[in-house]
């Protein structure tokens, strides 16, 4: 019999995971004590040579009421292999509804599921299709076991195997900030970060002034290999460049404007050697939330922008409030 199985929100040791929407998986008793609590488990791993992670206290019994998230990140054009040690035991249950390991093919809790595992038999070797694996270990409120130990290593992504030995990517980072500005892919060659034929993985760090957030508007966007996200994409991160802060990723024919929740935006362009005609140009505008202070301009869309951006020829608001009625002013 199973009683009082509860689910907790967990903060991993190295990354903050927003594991909202945790729900009771069992069907017997809905005695959910939705206690919020932090437990040190889970990790963010990208050691180049691979590594090992285990359930808490392994090979002793894991504690009850744990949810650990492990995210493994491979370098560009690498995949991940995950091997579980034979010394393995997780409380068995039908469909592994109670204690379990869940593995997903991607960086998120909503990435495609590879499998859910429990019982006495260690899972088979798991291979990712891309650069990330998302692994959750869940233990409910009673009946604990030894847990697991998993070893991961990186292998070349077969999608790129015809390219031979790949050169390391050039370092390519940019820093910018202020009330507004433009970040664009032409900076890569112009500022000598990479030649026009090298694969690039470039990041633009945009820092807004204190208490400000960032609005990003595409002025230009085109991927040379549309819908081939492994070859080229533009990604937007909100707060840091870590994968859990990924806000949007574009690799198709369209890219949408993005409103960030923080004052640190990271734009990332990935383009392989055959995708260096992929390009983007993006306008960033720093804004504060209303009520608008001092001489800031109210955009009518929950944005207060620097008054110097009014009638400057660039649309900084979501709708062009800042550029309306400008002819009157230049005429007078
Ligand atoms: Ca259990
Ligand atoms: Ca403007």
From TrEMBL:
Signal peptide: 1-22
Domain of life of the source: Eukaryota
Family annotation (SMART domains): CUB (SM00042), LDLa (SM00192)
GO molecular function list: ionotropic glutamate receptor binding
CDD domains the UniProt entry points to: CUB (cd00041), LDLa (cd00112)
Main location class: membrane
Cysteine pairs bridged by disulfides in the record: 41-68, 292-304, 299-317, 311-326
GO terms under cellular component: glutamatergic synapse; membrane; postsynaptic density
The CUB domain, residue ranges: 41-155, 172-287
Protein's recorded name: Neuropilin and tolloid-like protein 1 isoform X2
């Amino acid at each position: 019999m199973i009683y009082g199985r509860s689910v907790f929100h967990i903060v991993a040791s190295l990354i903050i995971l927003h594991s909202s929407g945790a729900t009771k998986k069992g069907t017997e008793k809905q005695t959910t004590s939705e206690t919020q609590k932090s437990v040190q488990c889970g990790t963010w791993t990208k050691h180049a040579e691979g590594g090992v992670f285990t359930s808490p206290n392994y090979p002793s019994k894991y504690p009850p009421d744990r949810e650990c998230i492990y995210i493994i990140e491979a370098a560009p054009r690498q995949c991940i292999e995950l091997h579980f040690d034979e010394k393995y035991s997780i409380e068995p249950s039908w469909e592994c509804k109670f204690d379990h390991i869940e593995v997903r093919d991607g960086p998120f809790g909503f990435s495609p599921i590879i499998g859910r595992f429990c019982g006495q038999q260690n899972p088979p070797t798991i291979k990712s299709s891309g650069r990330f694996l998302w692994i959750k270990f869940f233990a409910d409120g009673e009946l604990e076991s030894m847990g697991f130990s998993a070893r991961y290593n990186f292998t070349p992504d077969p999608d790129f195997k015809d390219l031979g030995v790949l050169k390391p990517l050039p370092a390519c980072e940019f820093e910018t900030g202020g009330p507004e500005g433009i970040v664009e892919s032409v900076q890569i060659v112009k500022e000598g970060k990479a030649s026009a034929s090298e694969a690039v993985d470039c990041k633009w760090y945009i820092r807004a002034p204190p208490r400000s957030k960032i609005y990003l508007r595409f002025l230009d966007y085109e991927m040379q290999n549309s819908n081939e996200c492994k070859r080229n994409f533009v990604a937007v991160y909100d707060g840091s460049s870590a994968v859990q802060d990924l806000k949007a990723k574009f690799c198709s024919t369209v890219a949408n404007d993005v409103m960030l929740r923080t004052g640190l935006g990271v734009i990332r362009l990935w383009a392989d050697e055959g995708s260096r005609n992929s390009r983007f140009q993006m306008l960033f505008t720093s804004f504060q939330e209303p009520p608008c202070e001092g001489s800031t301009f109210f955009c009518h869309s929950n944005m207060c922008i620097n008054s110097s951006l009014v009638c400057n020829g660039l649309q900084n608001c979501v709708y062009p409030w800042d550029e309306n009625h400008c002819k009157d002013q230049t005429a007078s």
